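Incident log, support desk, overnight shift.

02:14 A customer reports that sequence design results differ from what the structure should imply. Their input is reproduced verbatim below. On-call engineer (initials T.W.) acknowledged and began investigating.
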């Protein structure tokens, strides 16, 4: 069995869902809300609100940000979210599947708090092309402690390949709090080349007859894939356990379990789901293992050199169509067992000596293939190690799983996942718990100290 392979060469997080606050370590799956449709503009409510600094006041939830309810100086506690002094939070949005870059996108908010000349609160969007946050507005539009609505444009460069948009709101000042009664995206359709003959309000059919069949508009219909809003997206603060050997200990107080895809029966996943856990299913995507049930499906020409220290394991030619066919079948097995996510290992073969002319470019292509196949099946997918390509792949993957970044002093390379409010599940096999956990928590990683056999023993840093 594949165990671990060393690499070659305190922030508290809250998710607010429907008015319920969940502490760090709780697991939350959310469906992004389309709260309203007016004409061709859809109002997209935030699916998650993740505090990366400071906190929100109790009894308030992300649902309050879906609609604007307050004006003037009205104060209805449950209708808004109050951000404490020094707070900063990331709101995650998922755009409707029919939105395209040819359409319009803007951010609308209803703010109450200090005027900008007394204290600055900023609205930032994450630029997926530049890999950085960009300030798109501040509270300069508002009067002091009076509810004020404003709309700001948001460019297509802030939309990820999976339709996600991250908006960060906050301040570095400890002076005062602020309140948001609304924080939504307005997703508009592209302008029509030919004006429609009559208005067609969204969600409301014509009163007299079915919609006439005009000449079909040559707009391609997206391939029938699972709705992306159903995919689990772990955020920093999600507790986890990885166990690949020994009798499974289901008493570990973790929100997510990383378990072997082949060796774990579907009944175990069902029991974990019944207990409110998520399950990440591990398999090797870059190596051949001669004990696996599907070992005979790999083409002989795609089997490369032996992995040093791992009997029965050989590198794979990840460019080969036959290898990719096996990986698709493994993803199908994950779906049949109802895995929430997959953890494909050995996806950095090009940095080793696999026996094939693999390159950084071929590895990027293969890793993006794995991510696309997982997403097409409604599965989340983690990037295992492959630190040199994190910056290029952080938008394609939903979380990271890393071994020993502290030991190799490479943890900073995982920052792109944290800036996108995506979990980094860390494993450290050595070092003192105090030192390891202090560094992991400061980086906002969800790190476990484990033994090399990846059995049940675990010491979580948070």
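02:41 Re-run completed on a clean worker. Output:
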């Amino acid at each position: 069995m594949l165990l671990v392979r060393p690499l070659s060469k305190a922030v508290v997080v809250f998710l607010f869902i429907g008015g319920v606050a969940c502490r760090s370590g709780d697991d939350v799956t959310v469906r992004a809300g389309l709260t309203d449709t007016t004409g061709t503009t859809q109002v997209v409510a935030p699916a998650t609100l993740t505090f990366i600094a400071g906190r929100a006041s109790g009894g308030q939830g992300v649902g309050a940000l879906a609609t604007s309810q307050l004006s003037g100086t009205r104060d209805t506690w449950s209708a808004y979210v109050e951000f404490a002094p020094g707070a900063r939070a990331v709101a995650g949005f998922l755009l409707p599947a029919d939105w395209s870059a040819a359409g319009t996108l803007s951010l609308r908010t209803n703010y109450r708090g200090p005027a900008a000349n007394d204290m600055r609160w900023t609205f930032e969007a994450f630029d997926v092309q530049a890999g950085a946050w960009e300030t798109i507005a501040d509270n300069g539009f508002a009067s002091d402690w009076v509810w004020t609505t404003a709309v700001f444009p948001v460019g297509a460069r802030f939309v990820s390949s999976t339709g996600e948009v991250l908006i960060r709101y906050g301040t570095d000042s400890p002076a005062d709090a602020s309140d948001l009664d609304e924080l939504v995206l307005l997703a508009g359709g592209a302008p029509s080349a030919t004006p429609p003959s009559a208005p067609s309000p969204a969600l409301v059919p014509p009163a007299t007859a079915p919609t006439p069949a005009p000449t079909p508009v040559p707009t391609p219909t997206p391939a029938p894939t699972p709705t992306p809003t159903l995919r689990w997206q772990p955020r920093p603060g999600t507790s986890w356990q990885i166990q690949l050997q020994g009798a499974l200990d289901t008493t570990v107080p973790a929100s997510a379990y990383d378990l072997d895809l082949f060796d774990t029966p579907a009944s175990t996943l069902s029991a974990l789901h019944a207990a409110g856990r998520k399950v990440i299913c591990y398999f090797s995507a870059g190596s051949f293992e001669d004990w696996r049930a599907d070992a005979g499906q790999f083409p002989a020409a795609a089997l490369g050199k032996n992995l040093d220290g791992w009997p029965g394991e050989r590198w794979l030619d990840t460019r080969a169509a036959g290898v990719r066919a096996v990986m698709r079948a493994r993803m199908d097995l994950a779906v049949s067992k109802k895995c929430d996510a997959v953890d494909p290992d050995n996806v950095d073969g090009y940095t080793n000596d696999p026996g094939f002319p693999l390159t950084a470019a071929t590895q990027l292509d293969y890793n993006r293939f794995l991510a696309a196949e997982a997403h097409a099946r409604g599965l989340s997918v983690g990037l295992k190690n492959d630190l040199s390509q994190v910056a290029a792949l952080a938008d394609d993957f939903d979380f990271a799983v890393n071994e020993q970044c502290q030991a190799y002093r490479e943890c900073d390379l995982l920052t792109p996942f944290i800036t996108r409010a995506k979990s980094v599940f860390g494993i450290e096999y050595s070092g003192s718990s105090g030192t390891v956990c202090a560094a992991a928590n400061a980086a906002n990683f969800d790190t476990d100290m484990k033994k090399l056999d990846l059995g049940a023993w675990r010491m979580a840093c948070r």
